[in-house]
Design a protein that fits this description.
It is built from five helices and seven strands. By secondary structure, the chain is α+β, with helices and mostly antiparallel strands. A hairpin with a 5-residue loop joins strand 3 and strand 4. The protein starts with a strand and ends in a 7-residue tail after the last helix.
Length: 139
């Protein structure tokens, strides 16, 4: 299983929209590196949902529920999407400022590549982020 951080603009589509919908197509990714990450996703991978813009915080956890496939809304096989399903809202949102305060994040792509919308998360960072979010069990 792999872990990810998926960024979304909450005014466009928030984690709370995902909770209401249950699942959705994760689309709108243009960056070549972010698309490369999407192409490596597997069913069962987990993702932290990060609100960009004014919020800049992790607000929820989701599961990847499909293999990557070509975006049906576009005529471009290189532009892939995955389906994601809401698992749970975090107990305590984890702000970007909180992450930056911790010296253990020096190689974390959220900080190294701040414009990247699909960020791989190491198991060590995943566990630390769940702790910061006050999540000790996902289910």
């Amino acid at each position: 299983m792999a872990y990810w951080l998926l960024k979304t603009e909450p005014d466009n589509y928030s984690y709370f929209d995902l909770q209401k919908d249950g699942n959705t197509v994760w689309d709108g990714v243009n960056n070549p590196l972010a698309l490369k990450h999407l192409r490596t996703m597997e069913i069962g991978d987990l993702a932290l949902i990060y609100h960009t813009g004014k919020e800049r915080q992790i607000v929820g956890v989701a599961e990847i529920i499909s293999k990557p496939y070509a975006d049906p809304a576009l005529d471009d096989a290189k532009r892939v999407v995955v389906d994601v399903q809401a698992i749970r809202k975090v107990t305590q949102p984890v702000t970007l400022a909180k992450i930056k305060q911790d010296a253990n994040w020096e190689n974390f792509d959220l900080l190294r590549l701040p414009r990247l919308s699909v960020v791989p998360v190491s198991e060590l960072h995943w566990q630390r982020l769940l702790e910061l979010a006050s999540i000790y069990q996902l289910i």
